[in-house]
Amino acid sequence: MNPDASTIAAGAPIEVDLSPIAEGQDIKVFWRGKPIYISHRTKKQIDEARAVNVASLPDPQSDEARVKSGHEQWLVVIGICTHLGCIPIAHEGSYDGFFCPCHGSVYDTSGRIRQGPAPSNLPVPPYQFVSDTKIQIG
Fold first, then answer.
1. CATH code assigned at 86
2. pLDDT class for 49, splitting at 50, 70, 90?
3. Would you please indicate which residues are annotated as catalytic (active-site) residues?
4. Does residue 122 contact residue 67 with C-beta atoms inside 8 Å?
5. What's this model's pTM, rounded to 2 decimal places?
6. Where in the sequence is the domain holding 66, given as residue range(s)?
7. Which residues, 6+ apart, have CB-to-CB distance to 61 below 8 Å?
8. Is 13 inside a domain boundary?
9. C-alpha distances in angstroms, 110 versus 5, 11, 32, 87, 89?
10. How confident is the model at residue 3, as a pLDDT?
11. What is the largest distance, in Å, between two alpha-carbon atoms of the chain?
């Protein structure tokens, strides 16, 4: 038996199959009414995110702290700009991450704020890998 739509909307966990997402692509799903970006990062994107001097970031956080160990190629973030709640666009901006066209906030491939008025990084929702190709959010 599956939960009804109101239970799902209230925050029931969702499972997402990662196998159709090609390297370098991302998808957007919804959990608790919020857009969740799931990015299948390339080695280049991971290397660039890890080469950043964390102390230079407005909201210092390492790339390793934002992904699951052993699954570094997968970035899962809540796609709501931390400035005023707009929805950023994936694969845009100076860092090939996320760009919020409303007020100019720019996030890198780890979802960390790099430029603009946003005060903090894109949040990482609670999630876990249930297999190598499937995650559960919530």
1. 2.102.10.10
2. very high
3. 103
4. no
5. 0.91
6. 20-137
7. 54, 110, 112, 121
8. no
9. 32, 25, 22, 16, 14
10. 64
11. 49
Q: Find the length of the chain.
A: 138
CB 42 within 8 A of CB 48: no
Dihedral angle over CA of 63, 66, 68, 73, nearest 10: -50
What is residue 55's three-state secondary structure? Answer: helix
Residue 33 has a CB neighbour count (10 Å cut-off) of 8
Q: What residue has token string 């052993």? A: 70
In tens, the pLDDT along 8-41 reads 566 689 999 999 999 999 999 999 999 999 999 9
46 three-state secondary structure:
helix
- d(Cα 10, Cα 74) in Å, to the nearest integer? 25
- Among all chains, which residue has been given the structure tokens 């909307």? 9
Number of domains into which the chain is organized: 1
- Measured between alpha carbons, how far is 104 from 91 in angstroms, rounded to an integer? 14
CB-based contacts of 94, cutoff 8 Å, min separation 6: 106, 114, 115
Q: Residue with structure tokens 């390297």?
A: 23
Q: What is the pLDDT of residues 113-125, one digit of tens each?
A: 999 999 999 999 9
